[in-house]
Amino acid sequence: MADSERLSAPGCWAACTNFSRTRKGILLFAEIILCLVILICFGASTSGYSFLSVIEMIFAAIFFVVYMCDLHTKIQFINWPWSDFFRTLVAVILYLITSIVVLVERGNHSKIVAGVLGLIAACLFGYDAYITFPLRQQRHTAAPTDPADGPV
Questions:
Q1: Is there a domain that residue 34 lies in?
Q2: Which residue spans traverse the membrane (predicted)?
Q3: Quick one: which of 121, 128, 22, 31 has its CA closest to 81?
Q4: Quick one: 84 exposed, middle or buried, by C-beta within 10 A (0-12, 13-18, 19+)?
Q5: Could you report the per-residue pLDDT of 51-100, keeping only the tens digit for each?
Q6: Backbone angles phi, psi at 31, to 5 degrees
Q7: Does residue 12 sit within a domain?
Q8: Domain assignment of residue 57, given as a range
Q9: Domain for residue 87, yes or no?
């Protein structure tokens, strides 16, 4: 039993490190870290806006684990590309609104830093939405056609 656990650990670690080096893995990891920093800044100034950072950090971590463990190919009842696209699209909209409101209010320095980082997060989530747009990733091939002369 201990040998099978020991053999499965390098495979899990290799999957984690391999996904972490992909563009999607780097983006999700950056989203998690940026949401954590924004959460700390909002926590230092006011707790009213920290809910957005917590929710987006949790969703980014869930998608990171799903893609890292290759669960998106095993769980078929969820359309993962569209779910990821809508997650990032909603994050862009909410971070833009929240950051503009925070910057217009002009609070203390940590609140202003959180607003600026929120705008950066909106750009990061926007880029993630752009690269995960499902229709952009589909390649269309030409349909086979019959010859104009009819069957040969």
A1: yes
A2: 26-45, 51-73, 85-104, 110-130
A3: 128
A4: buried
A5: 888 999 999 999 888 888 877 777 788 888 888 889 999 999 999 998 89
A6: -65, -40
A7: no
A8: 20-133
A9: yes
